[in-house]
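Appendix B, Record 12. Input sequence as logged:
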Amino acid sequence: HFGSRRGTSVTIRASTCTARAPAHAMSGATNAAGSGGREAKRRRTEEDARGSTDETDDSDNEELGGSSSSSLSSDPAAAAVEAHAVEGRRVEAPARKPLVIPNLPFSLEDLEVEISALRAKPPPYLSNIGELQRPVVHCGVDGQLAKPDSDKGPFDLSVRVRGEEGDKAYGKLFNVMLRFDCDLWPSKLAIVRFRGVFHHALTDENNSMTMPFYRSLKRDERGACTVRLMLESVHSFLVDPLPSWKVHADAMSAEKVAKVTRAIQVHRQMNEDRLDVIEQYASKVLHKELFQWPFRWRDEWLEPSFLEAARANTSSGWRAILTEHLPGEVFSFKVFKDKFCDWFLEEVFNFYASGLPARRPNSMNAYGIILNDIGLEPMIDDLQRLLQPLGELLFPGPGAAWDGHHCFIVRYRVGEDLGLDMHTDDSDVTFNLCLGLEFTSAGLQFCGHMGAPNHRKHTLTYQHVKGSCVVHLGRKRHGADDISSGERLNLILWNHSSAYRQSDECTDPEYVAEEGPPDSVCVSYTHDRDYGHFKDYPKGKEHFRGRGWCPRRSFEYAEFKPDCDKEQPPV
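Logged structural output:
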Protein backbone atom coordinates (compact mmCIF):
# COMPACT_ATOMS: atom_id res chain seq x y z
CA HIS A 1 0.00 0.00 0.00
CA PHE A 2 0.97 3.57 -0.68
CA GLY A 3 2.74 4.94 2.39
CA SER A 4 1.00 2.36 4.57
CA ARG A 5 0.59 3.28 8.22
CA ARG A 6 -1.47 0.27 9.28
CA GLY A 7 -0.82 -2.25 12.00
CA THR A 8 -2.66 -4.70 14.22
CA SER A 9 -4.55 -4.15 17.44
CA VAL A 10 -6.52 -5.97 20.04
CA THR A 11 -10.10 -7.04 19.36
CA ILE A 12 -12.53 -6.52 22.22
CA ARG A 13 -15.79 -8.39 21.75
CA ALA A 14 -18.74 -9.05 24.03
CA SER A 15 -21.77 -11.23 23.47
CA THR A 16 -24.44 -9.01 21.94
CA CYS A 17 -24.06 -5.28 21.34
CA THR A 18 -20.34 -5.30 20.77
CA ALA A 19 -17.52 -2.89 20.12
CA ARG A 20 -14.70 -4.53 18.20
CA ALA A 21 -11.61 -2.53 18.93
CA PRO A 22 -9.86 -1.42 15.75
CA ALA A 23 -8.28 -4.09 13.58
CA HIS A 24 -6.56 -2.44 10.66
CA ALA A 25 -6.56 -3.59 7.10
CA MET A 26 -3.34 -4.87 5.66
CA SER A 27 -0.54 -3.34 3.68
CA GLY A 28 0.35 -4.76 0.31
CA ALA A 29 3.14 -6.85 1.80
CA THR A 30 0.83 -8.24 4.48
CA ASN A 31 -1.72 -9.19 1.86
CA ALA A 32 0.76 -11.74 0.58
CA ALA A 33 0.40 -13.77 3.75
CA GLY A 34 -3.03 -15.15 2.87
CA SER A 35 -6.42 -15.00 4.52
CA GLY A 36 -6.19 -18.20 6.58
CA GLY A 37 -3.47 -16.83 8.85
CA ARG A 38 -5.34 -13.57 9.32
CA GLU A 39 -8.53 -15.36 10.37
CA ALA A 40 -6.70 -17.61 12.82
CA LYS A 41 -4.85 -14.65 14.27
CA ARG A 42 -8.08 -12.71 14.65
CA ARG A 43 -9.73 -15.59 16.51
CA ARG A 44 -6.77 -15.89 18.87
CA THR A 45 -6.81 -12.14 19.51
CA GLU A 46 -10.53 -12.27 20.22
CA GLU A 47 -10.10 -15.08 22.73
CA ASP A 48 -7.21 -13.27 24.47
CA ALA A 49 -9.20 -10.07 24.80
CA ARG A 50 -12.28 -11.85 26.09
CA GLY A 51 -10.21 -13.50 28.76
CA SER A 52 -8.55 -10.24 29.75
CA THR A 53 -11.88 -8.56 30.45
CA ASP A 54 -13.61 -11.59 32.00
CA GLU A 55 -10.95 -12.80 34.44
CA THR A 56 -11.21 -11.69 38.06
CA ASP A 57 -7.45 -11.90 38.58
CA ASP A 58 -5.05 -11.43 35.67
CA SER A 59 -1.81 -11.33 37.63
CA ASP A 60 -0.62 -14.63 36.19
CA ASN A 61 -1.22 -13.79 32.53
CA GLU A 62 1.86 -14.23 30.35
CA GLU A 63 1.08 -11.20 28.17
CA LEU A 64 -0.51 -7.88 29.04
CA GLY A 65 -2.08 -7.77 25.62
CA GLY A 66 -2.80 -11.46 25.12
CA SER A 67 -0.73 -14.14 23.47
CA SER A 68 2.43 -13.36 21.55
CA SER A 69 0.59 -14.22 18.35
CA SER A 70 -1.60 -11.17 18.74
CA SER A 71 0.78 -8.32 19.48
CA LEU A 72 -1.02 -5.06 20.11
CA SER A 73 1.16 -3.11 17.76
CA SER A 74 3.21 -3.75 14.66
CA ASP A 75 5.72 -1.13 15.77
CA PRO A 76 8.72 -3.04 17.20
CA ALA A 77 9.36 -0.31 19.74
CA ALA A 78 5.79 -0.37 21.03
CA ALA A 79 5.80 -4.17 21.08
CA ALA A 80 8.99 -4.06 23.13
CA VAL A 81 7.39 -1.70 25.62
CA GLU A 82 4.45 -4.09 26.01
CA ALA A 83 6.70 -7.11 26.42
CA HIS A 84 8.99 -5.45 28.97
CA ALA A 85 6.06 -4.00 30.86
CA VAL A 86 4.84 -7.58 31.35
CA GLU A 87 7.87 -8.54 33.43
CA GLY A 88 7.47 -5.55 35.68
CA ARG A 89 3.85 -6.53 36.21
CA ARG A 90 4.75 -10.14 36.99
CA VAL A 91 7.27 -9.03 39.63
CA GLU A 92 4.70 -6.81 41.23
CA ALA A 93 1.80 -9.26 40.88
CA PRO A 94 2.14 -11.26 44.15
CA ALA A 95 1.29 -8.20 46.23
CA ARG A 96 -1.90 -7.51 44.28
CA LYS A 97 -5.32 -8.45 45.55
CA PRO A 98 -7.60 -10.27 43.11
CA LEU A 99 -9.90 -7.87 41.33
CA VAL A 100 -13.55 -8.86 41.55
CA ILE A 101 -15.45 -7.31 38.64
CA PRO A 102 -19.10 -6.66 39.50
CA ASN A 103 -21.86 -7.67 37.15
CA LEU A 104 -23.59 -4.31 36.82
CA PRO A 105 -26.21 -3.71 34.12
CA PHE A 106 -25.80 -1.01 31.49
CA SER A 107 -27.98 2.05 32.09
CA LEU A 108 -28.10 4.86 29.54
CA GLU A 109 -29.79 7.10 32.09
CA ASP A 110 -27.03 6.58 34.64
CA LEU A 111 -24.38 7.22 31.99
CA GLU A 112 -26.00 10.51 30.99
CA VAL A 113 -26.20 11.56 34.64
CA GLU A 114 -22.49 10.84 35.06
CA ILE A 115 -21.59 12.92 32.02
CA SER A 116 -23.79 15.81 33.14
CA ALA A 117 -22.08 15.83 36.54
CA LEU A 118 -18.68 15.78 34.86
CA ARG A 119 -19.69 18.65 32.60
CA ALA A 120 -20.91 20.67 35.60
CA LYS A 121 -17.66 20.16 37.52
CA PRO A 122 -14.83 19.12 35.19
CA PRO A 123 -11.26 18.63 36.36
CA PRO A 124 -8.76 21.16 34.95
CA TYR A 125 -7.36 18.73 32.40
CA LEU A 126 -10.71 18.26 30.60
CA SER A 127 -12.46 20.48 28.06
CA ASN A 128 -15.22 20.37 25.44
CA ILE A 129 -17.20 17.49 26.92
CA GLY A 130 -19.67 16.53 24.20
CA GLU A 131 -23.02 14.77 24.12
CA LEU A 132 -23.50 11.03 23.76
CA GLN A 133 -23.87 10.05 20.10
CA ARG A 134 -24.85 6.80 18.43
CA PRO A 135 -22.40 5.89 15.64
CA VAL A 136 -23.94 5.49 12.19
CA VAL A 137 -22.67 1.89 12.03
CA HIS A 138 -20.60 -0.40 14.19
CA CYS A 139 -19.06 -3.82 13.72
CA GLY A 140 -20.79 -6.72 15.44
CA VAL A 141 -19.44 -10.02 16.73
CA ASP A 142 -20.13 -11.58 13.33
CA GLY A 143 -17.73 -9.19 11.61
CA GLN A 144 -20.54 -7.41 9.78
CA LEU A 145 -21.40 -3.71 9.86
CA ALA A 146 -24.78 -2.91 11.42
CA LYS A 147 -26.73 0.05 12.73
CA PRO A 148 -26.58 0.37 16.54
CA ASP A 149 -29.50 -0.69 18.68
CA SER A 150 -31.49 2.39 19.67
CA ASP A 151 -31.45 1.47 23.38
CA LYS A 152 -28.27 -0.52 23.84
CA GLY A 153 -25.91 1.47 21.66
CA PRO A 154 -22.93 1.54 21.51
CA PHE A 155 -22.65 5.23 22.39
CA ASP A 156 -19.73 7.59 21.77
CA LEU A 157 -18.55 10.54 23.83
CA SER A 158 -16.04 13.10 22.58
CA VAL A 159 -13.92 15.07 25.03
CA ARG A 160 -10.59 16.90 25.02
CA VAL A 161 -7.94 15.75 27.51
CA ARG A 162 -4.45 16.99 28.25
CA GLY A 163 -1.52 15.70 30.25
CA GLU A 164 0.58 17.77 32.62
CA GLU A 165 0.24 21.49 32.04
CA GLY A 166 3.36 22.90 30.39
CA ASP A 167 4.44 19.55 28.92
CA LYS A 168 5.47 20.36 25.34
CA ALA A 169 4.54 16.90 24.07
CA TYR A 170 1.33 16.01 25.90
CA GLY A 171 0.33 19.19 27.73
CA LYS A 172 -1.98 20.30 24.90
CA LEU A 173 -5.61 19.24 24.61
CA PHE A 174 -6.14 16.07 22.56
CA ASN A 175 -9.42 14.86 21.12
CA VAL A 176 -10.43 11.60 22.79
CA MET A 177 -13.41 9.36 22.05
CA LEU A 178 -14.89 6.99 24.61
CA ARG A 179 -17.15 4.21 23.34
CA PHE A 180 -19.64 2.73 25.81
CA ASP A 181 -20.86 -0.77 25.04
CA CYS A 182 -23.73 -2.43 26.90
CA ASP A 183 -21.73 -5.59 27.59
CA LEU A 184 -18.61 -3.78 28.80
CA TRP A 185 -19.90 -0.74 30.71
CA PRO A 186 -19.75 -0.06 33.62
CA SER A 187 -18.40 -3.40 34.85
CA LYS A 188 -15.32 -3.59 32.63
CA LEU A 189 -14.37 -0.63 30.46
CA ALA A 190 -15.12 1.99 27.84
CA ILE A 191 -12.99 1.76 24.71
CA VAL A 192 -10.64 4.77 24.47
CA ARG A 193 -9.23 6.18 21.27
CA PHE A 194 -7.35 9.39 20.50
CA ARG A 195 -8.85 11.20 17.53
CA GLY A 196 -6.63 13.00 15.06
CA VAL A 197 -2.84 13.06 14.90
CA PHE A 198 -1.30 11.61 18.05
CA HIS A 199 2.08 9.97 18.62
CA HIS A 200 2.64 7.65 21.58
CA ALA A 201 4.66 4.46 21.96
CA LEU A 202 1.93 2.76 23.98
CA THR A 203 -1.10 3.27 21.75
CA ASP A 204 -1.75 1.18 18.66
CA GLU A 205 -1.70 2.34 15.03
CA ASN A 206 -5.32 3.40 15.32
CA ASN A 207 -4.45 5.62 18.32
CA SER A 208 -6.43 3.29 20.59
CA MET A 209 -5.42 2.29 24.09
CA THR A 210 -3.96 -1.21 24.41
CA MET A 211 -4.89 -3.88 26.94
CA PRO A 212 -2.45 -2.85 29.73
CA PHE A 213 -4.30 0.47 30.00
CA TYR A 214 -7.63 -1.25 30.58
CA ARG A 215 -6.20 -3.68 33.13
CA SER A 216 -4.94 -0.81 35.25
CA LEU A 217 -8.16 1.25 35.21
CA LYS A 218 -9.18 2.98 38.40
CA ARG A 219 -12.52 1.85 39.82
CA ASP A 220 -15.03 3.14 42.35
CA GLU A 221 -16.08 1.55 45.62
CA ARG A 222 -18.34 -0.88 43.73
CA GLY A 223 -15.40 -2.07 41.66
CA ALA A 224 -16.98 -0.45 38.59
CA CYS A 225 -15.71 2.05 36.03
CA THR A 226 -16.95 5.63 35.95
CA VAL A 227 -16.59 8.26 33.25
CA ARG A 228 -14.64 10.54 35.57
CA LEU A 229 -12.20 7.79 36.56
CA MET A 230 -11.80 6.66 32.93
CA LEU A 231 -10.74 10.16 31.92
CA GLU A 232 -8.52 10.47 34.98
CA SER A 233 -6.76 7.33 33.75
CA VAL A 234 -6.33 8.90 30.30
CA HIS A 235 -4.85 12.00 31.93
CA SER A 236 -2.47 9.88 34.05
CA PHE A 237 -1.42 8.00 30.93
CA LEU A 238 -0.49 11.29 29.24
CA VAL A 239 1.45 12.46 32.30
CA ASP A 240 3.48 9.26 32.80
CA PRO A 241 2.18 6.00 31.33
CA LEU A 242 4.27 3.36 33.10
CA PRO A 243 3.34 4.30 36.69
CA SER A 244 -0.28 4.55 35.56
CA TRP A 245 0.08 0.95 34.35
CA LYS A 246 1.69 -0.02 37.68
CA VAL A 247 4.93 -0.91 35.90
CA HIS A 248 8.12 0.17 37.67
CA ALA A 249 11.60 0.57 36.21
CA ASP A 250 13.25 -1.18 39.17
CA ALA A 251 11.45 -4.39 38.15
CA MET A 252 13.26 -4.49 34.82
CA SER A 253 16.87 -4.90 33.72
CA ALA A 254 18.86 -1.84 32.68
CA GLU A 255 18.72 -3.01 29.07
CA LYS A 256 14.95 -3.28 29.16
CA VAL A 257 14.58 0.07 30.88
CA ALA A 258 16.66 1.64 28.10
CA LYS A 259 14.47 0.10 25.40
CA VAL A 260 11.28 1.19 27.11
CA THR A 261 12.58 4.70 27.69
CA ARG A 262 13.80 5.00 24.12
CA ALA A 263 10.46 3.91 22.65
CA ILE A 264 8.53 6.40 24.74
CA GLN A 265 11.01 9.21 24.07
CA VAL A 266 10.97 8.73 20.28
CA HIS A 267 7.19 9.14 20.12
CA ARG A 268 7.23 11.95 22.66
CA GLN A 269 9.71 13.83 20.48
CA MET A 270 7.54 13.30 17.39
CA ASN A 271 4.55 14.77 19.20
CA GLU A 272 6.59 17.67 20.57
CA ASP A 273 8.12 18.46 17.17
CA ARG A 274 4.72 18.49 15.48
CA LEU A 275 3.17 20.80 18.07
CA ASP A 276 6.23 23.05 17.95
CA VAL A 277 5.91 23.48 14.16
CA ILE A 278 2.21 24.30 14.52
CA GLU A 279 2.96 26.86 17.24
CA GLN A 280 5.77 28.48 15.26
CA TYR A 281 3.79 28.65 12.04
CA ALA A 282 0.81 30.22 13.83
CA SER A 283 2.73 33.50 13.91
CA LYS A 284 3.60 33.29 10.20
CA VAL A 285 0.26 32.35 8.59
CA LEU A 286 -1.10 34.44 5.74
CA HIS A 287 -4.79 33.59 6.04
CA LYS A 288 -5.85 33.18 9.66
CA GLU A 289 -9.35 32.19 8.55
CA LEU A 290 -7.97 28.79 7.55
CA PHE A 291 -6.69 28.07 11.06
CA GLN A 292 -9.70 28.98 13.19
CA TRP A 293 -11.12 26.58 15.74
CA PRO A 294 -13.88 25.58 15.52
CA PHE A 295 -13.66 25.78 11.72
CA ARG A 296 -16.50 26.20 9.24
CA TRP A 297 -16.25 26.45 5.46
CA ARG A 298 -17.39 29.76 3.97
CA ASP A 299 -19.92 29.84 1.16
CA GLU A 300 -17.70 32.01 -1.03
CA TRP A 301 -14.96 29.35 -1.05
CA LEU A 302 -17.12 26.54 -2.39
CA GLU A 303 -18.55 25.83 -5.82
CA PRO A 304 -22.29 26.74 -5.75
CA SER A 305 -23.38 23.32 -7.03
CA PHE A 306 -21.41 21.55 -4.28
CA LEU A 307 -22.73 23.93 -1.63
CA GLU A 308 -26.32 23.34 -2.77
CA ALA A 309 -25.86 19.55 -2.72
CA ALA A 310 -24.31 19.66 0.76
CA ARG A 311 -27.16 21.75 2.13
CA ALA A 312 -29.89 19.59 0.58
CA ASN A 313 -28.06 16.38 1.49
CA THR A 314 -30.26 14.16 -0.64
CA SER A 315 -29.26 11.28 -2.86
CA SER A 316 -30.60 13.03 -5.95
CA GLY A 317 -28.88 16.28 -5.02
CA TRP A 318 -25.49 14.64 -4.63
CA ARG A 319 -25.81 12.56 -7.78
CA ALA A 320 -26.72 15.66 -9.79
CA ILE A 321 -23.20 17.11 -9.31
CA LEU A 322 -21.33 13.87 -10.07
CA THR A 323 -19.62 12.70 -13.23
CA GLU A 324 -19.44 8.90 -13.14
CA HIS A 325 -16.27 7.86 -14.97
CA LEU A 326 -16.42 4.16 -14.01
CA PRO A 327 -19.80 2.80 -12.90
CA GLY A 328 -19.80 2.55 -9.13
CA GLU A 329 -16.03 3.04 -8.88
CA VAL A 330 -14.69 6.47 -9.90
CA PHE A 331 -16.55 9.79 -9.71
CA SER A 332 -15.61 13.47 -9.95
CA PHE A 333 -17.28 16.73 -8.99
CA LYS A 334 -16.43 20.39 -8.54
CA VAL A 335 -15.69 21.47 -4.95
CA PHE A 336 -13.60 24.66 -4.74
CA LYS A 337 -13.83 27.94 -6.60
CA ASP A 338 -10.67 28.81 -8.53
CA LYS A 339 -10.09 31.85 -6.31
CA PHE A 340 -10.05 29.67 -3.22
CA CYS A 341 -7.54 27.30 -4.85
CA ASP A 342 -5.23 30.26 -5.53
CA TRP A 343 -5.75 31.63 -2.04
CA PHE A 344 -5.12 28.27 -0.37
CA LEU A 345 -1.97 27.69 -2.42
CA GLU A 346 -0.64 31.03 -1.20
CA GLU A 347 -0.76 29.51 2.29
CA VAL A 348 0.92 26.30 1.11
CA PHE A 349 3.77 28.19 -0.56
CA ASN A 350 4.04 30.43 2.48
CA PHE A 351 4.70 27.36 4.61
CA TYR A 352 7.30 26.12 2.11
CA ALA A 353 9.02 29.53 2.39
CA SER A 354 8.91 29.53 6.20
CA GLY A 355 11.79 27.07 6.41
CA LEU A 356 10.00 25.08 9.10
CA PRO A 357 10.55 21.32 9.01
CA ALA A 358 7.82 19.16 7.51
CA ARG A 359 7.25 15.42 7.64
CA ARG A 360 6.60 13.99 4.19
CA PRO A 361 3.14 12.51 3.70
CA ASN A 362 4.28 9.01 2.72
CA SER A 363 7.17 7.02 1.33
CA MET A 364 6.50 8.00 -2.30
CA ASN A 365 6.10 11.81 -2.24
CA ALA A 366 9.31 13.64 -1.38
CA TYR A 367 8.00 17.21 -1.66
CA GLY A 368 4.53 17.14 -0.12
CA ILE A 369 3.41 18.37 3.30
CA ILE A 370 0.94 16.96 5.81
CA LEU A 371 -1.74 19.58 6.39
CA ASN A 372 -2.60 18.15 9.81
CA ASP A 373 0.99 18.87 10.87
CA ILE A 374 0.92 22.62 10.17
CA GLY A 375 -2.26 23.54 12.05
CA LEU A 376 -4.93 22.79 9.43
CA GLU A 377 -6.43 19.72 11.09
CA PRO A 378 -9.66 21.55 12.11
CA MET A 379 -10.17 22.65 8.49
CA ILE A 380 -9.75 19.08 7.24
CA ASP A 381 -12.05 17.76 9.98
CA ASP A 382 -14.79 20.00 8.63
CA LEU A 383 -14.05 19.09 5.01
CA GLN A 384 -14.47 15.45 5.96
CA ARG A 385 -17.77 16.33 7.64
CA LEU A 386 -19.02 17.92 4.40
CA LEU A 387 -17.96 14.92 2.30
CA GLN A 388 -19.18 12.17 4.67
CA PRO A 389 -22.73 11.94 3.19
CA LEU A 390 -21.25 11.47 -0.28
CA GLY A 391 -19.03 8.67 1.00
CA GLU A 392 -22.01 6.90 2.54
CA LEU A 393 -23.96 7.23 -0.72
CA LEU A 394 -21.25 6.01 -3.09
CA PHE A 395 -19.44 3.41 -0.98
CA PRO A 396 -21.59 1.85 1.78
CA GLY A 397 -19.25 0.28 4.32
CA PRO A 398 -15.89 1.95 3.64
CA GLY A 399 -17.70 5.27 3.15
CA ALA A 400 -19.57 5.13 6.46
CA ALA A 401 -18.70 6.48 9.90
CA TRP A 402 -15.34 8.10 9.13
CA ASP A 403 -13.53 8.88 12.33
CA GLY A 404 -9.99 9.54 11.13
CA HIS A 405 -8.07 10.97 8.21
CA HIS A 406 -4.65 11.63 6.74
CA CYS A 407 -4.57 14.76 4.58
CA PHE A 408 -1.63 16.11 2.62
CA ILE A 409 -0.43 18.11 -0.36
CA VAL A 410 1.41 16.43 -3.23
CA ARG A 411 3.52 18.50 -5.64
CA TYR A 412 4.78 17.52 -9.08
CA ARG A 413 7.16 19.54 -11.22
CA VAL A 414 10.30 19.10 -13.29
CA GLY A 415 13.33 18.57 -11.06
CA GLU A 416 11.25 17.10 -8.22
CA ASP A 417 8.61 14.37 -8.20
CA LEU A 418 7.39 13.97 -11.78
CA GLY A 419 4.75 11.28 -11.25
CA LEU A 420 3.79 8.43 -8.98
CA ASP A 421 4.23 4.68 -9.26
CA MET A 422 1.15 2.44 -9.32
CA HIS A 423 -0.20 1.83 -5.81
CA THR A 424 -3.22 1.50 -3.58
CA ASP A 425 -3.89 3.87 -0.69
CA ASP A 426 -3.89 3.35 3.06
CA SER A 427 -7.38 4.77 2.85
CA ASP A 428 -10.93 3.47 2.91
CA VAL A 429 -12.13 6.22 0.55
CA THR A 430 -9.81 8.72 -1.15
CA PHE A 431 -10.66 12.26 -2.29
CA ASN A 432 -8.11 13.83 -4.66
CA LEU A 433 -8.65 17.58 -5.21
CA CYS A 434 -6.66 19.49 -7.83
CA LEU A 435 -5.57 22.96 -6.68
CA GLY A 436 -3.65 23.96 -9.84
CA LEU A 437 -1.33 25.36 -11.17
CA GLU A 438 -0.64 25.30 -14.90
CA PHE A 439 0.60 21.91 -16.16
CA THR A 440 0.59 19.49 -19.05
CA SER A 441 0.21 15.69 -18.94
CA ALA A 442 0.11 14.36 -15.35
CA GLY A 443 -2.97 12.22 -15.95
CA LEU A 444 -4.25 9.84 -13.29
CA GLN A 445 -4.32 6.22 -14.47
CA PHE A 446 -6.77 3.77 -12.88
CA CYS A 447 -6.64 -0.01 -12.94
CA GLY A 448 -8.67 -2.61 -10.99
CA HIS A 449 -9.29 -3.20 -7.30
CA MET A 450 -6.88 -5.07 -5.06
CA GLY A 451 -7.61 -8.79 -5.25
CA ALA A 452 -9.90 -8.54 -8.29
CA PRO A 453 -9.26 -10.49 -11.52
CA ASN A 454 -8.60 -7.16 -13.31
CA HIS A 455 -6.41 -5.77 -10.51
CA ARG A 456 -3.70 -4.78 -13.02
CA LYS A 457 -5.87 -4.09 -16.05
CA HIS A 458 -6.28 -0.48 -17.21
CA THR A 459 -9.77 0.93 -16.68
CA LEU A 460 -9.58 4.74 -16.91
CA THR A 461 -7.39 7.76 -17.60
CA TYR A 462 -8.59 10.78 -15.62
CA GLN A 463 -7.43 14.33 -16.35
CA HIS A 464 -7.24 16.69 -13.39
CA VAL A 465 -9.26 19.93 -13.44
CA LYS A 466 -8.53 22.80 -11.07
CA GLY A 467 -11.05 22.93 -8.22
CA SER A 468 -12.42 19.47 -9.00
CA CYS A 469 -12.19 16.29 -6.97
CA VAL A 470 -11.97 12.66 -8.02
CA VAL A 471 -13.14 10.04 -5.50
CA HIS A 472 -12.47 6.30 -5.36
CA LEU A 473 -11.87 3.46 -2.94
CA GLY A 474 -8.39 3.31 -1.46
CA ARG A 475 -7.95 -0.27 -2.65
CA LYS A 476 -8.26 0.75 -6.32
CA ARG A 477 -4.85 0.65 -8.02
CA HIS A 478 -3.85 3.98 -9.56
CA GLY A 479 -0.80 6.05 -10.44
CA ALA A 480 0.15 9.49 -11.76
CA ASP A 481 1.72 10.00 -15.19
CA ASP A 482 4.86 12.10 -15.31
CA ILE A 483 4.27 15.82 -15.66
CA SER A 484 5.64 17.29 -18.92
CA SER A 485 5.71 20.96 -17.95
CA GLY A 486 4.46 23.31 -15.29
CA GLU A 487 3.51 22.42 -11.74
CA ARG A 488 0.60 20.52 -10.22
CA LEU A 489 -0.46 20.51 -6.56
CA ASN A 490 -3.27 18.36 -5.21
CA LEU A 491 -4.91 18.01 -1.82
CA ILE A 492 -5.28 14.31 -0.94
CA LEU A 493 -7.73 13.26 1.76
CA TRP A 494 -7.53 9.66 3.00
CA ASN A 495 -10.65 8.84 5.02
CA HIS A 496 -10.58 6.11 7.66
CA SER A 497 -13.48 4.30 9.29
CA SER A 498 -12.51 2.28 12.37
CA ALA A 499 -15.84 0.43 12.19
CA TYR A 500 -15.20 -0.66 8.60
CA ARG A 501 -11.60 -1.61 9.41
CA GLN A 502 -12.86 -4.04 12.05
CA SER A 503 -15.23 -5.74 9.62
CA ASP A 504 -14.57 -8.99 7.77
CA GLU A 505 -14.94 -7.14 4.47
CA CYS A 506 -11.79 -5.20 5.33
CA THR A 507 -9.79 -7.64 7.44
CA ASP A 508 -10.44 -10.70 5.26
CA PRO A 509 -11.16 -9.39 1.74
CA GLU A 510 -11.72 -11.61 -1.24
CA TYR A 511 -8.62 -12.21 -3.33
CA VAL A 512 -8.72 -14.15 -6.61
CA ALA A 513 -6.18 -14.98 -9.30
CA GLU A 514 -5.51 -12.44 -12.02
CA GLU A 515 -7.29 -13.06 -15.30
CA GLY A 516 -4.14 -12.64 -17.37
CA PRO A 517 -0.93 -10.63 -17.84
CA PRO A 518 -1.17 -7.01 -16.65
CA ASP A 519 -1.42 -3.98 -18.88
CA SER A 520 1.95 -2.24 -18.90
CA VAL A 521 0.47 1.03 -17.65
CA CYS A 522 -0.72 -0.79 -14.50
CA VAL A 523 2.54 -2.38 -13.32
CA SER A 524 4.42 -1.11 -10.27
CA TYR A 525 8.18 -1.28 -9.76
CA THR A 526 7.58 -0.99 -6.01
CA HIS A 527 5.11 -3.84 -5.62
CA ASP A 528 5.13 -6.18 -8.63
CA ARG A 529 7.09 -9.40 -9.03
CA ASP A 530 6.98 -9.26 -12.85
CA TYR A 531 7.55 -5.55 -13.50
CA GLY A 532 10.74 -6.12 -15.51
CA HIS A 533 8.87 -8.15 -18.15
CA PHE A 534 6.74 -5.13 -19.07
CA LYS A 535 8.94 -2.09 -18.35
CA ASP A 536 12.54 -1.25 -17.57
CA TYR A 537 13.13 -0.36 -13.95
CA PRO A 538 13.52 3.42 -13.54
CA LYS A 539 17.03 4.64 -12.89
CA GLY A 540 17.80 4.31 -9.21
CA LYS A 541 14.91 1.90 -8.61
CA GLU A 542 16.63 -1.29 -9.71
CA HIS A 543 16.91 -2.45 -6.09
CA PHE A 544 13.16 -3.17 -6.09
CA ARG A 545 13.70 -6.13 -8.41
CA GLY A 546 12.91 -9.33 -6.53
CA ARG A 547 11.25 -7.49 -3.63
CA GLY A 548 7.69 -7.39 -4.95
CA TRP A 549 4.67 -9.21 -3.53
CA CYS A 550 2.09 -8.81 -6.33
CA PRO A 551 0.53 -10.97 -7.59
CA ARG A 552 0.26 -13.00 -4.42
CA ARG A 553 1.79 -16.44 -4.55
CA SER A 554 -0.75 -19.04 -5.72
CA PHE A 555 -2.86 -16.27 -7.26
CA GLU A 556 -0.70 -15.64 -10.34
CA TYR A 557 -2.09 -15.65 -13.87
CA ALA A 558 -1.39 -18.76 -15.94
CA GLU A 559 1.70 -17.49 -17.80
CA PHE A 560 3.26 -15.70 -14.82
CA LYS A 561 7.02 -15.65 -14.35
CA PRO A 562 8.91 -13.43 -11.89
CA ASP A 563 11.39 -10.99 -13.40
CA CYS A 564 14.34 -12.38 -11.42
CA ASP A 565 15.67 -15.82 -10.56
CA LYS A 566 15.66 -15.31 -6.81
CA GLU A 567 12.77 -13.53 -5.10
CA GLN A 568 12.82 -12.36 -1.53
CA PRO A 569 10.24 -14.20 0.60
CA PRO A 570 7.07 -12.23 1.42
CA VAL A 571 7.13 -10.28 4.68
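The two ends are 13 Å apart (CA to CA).
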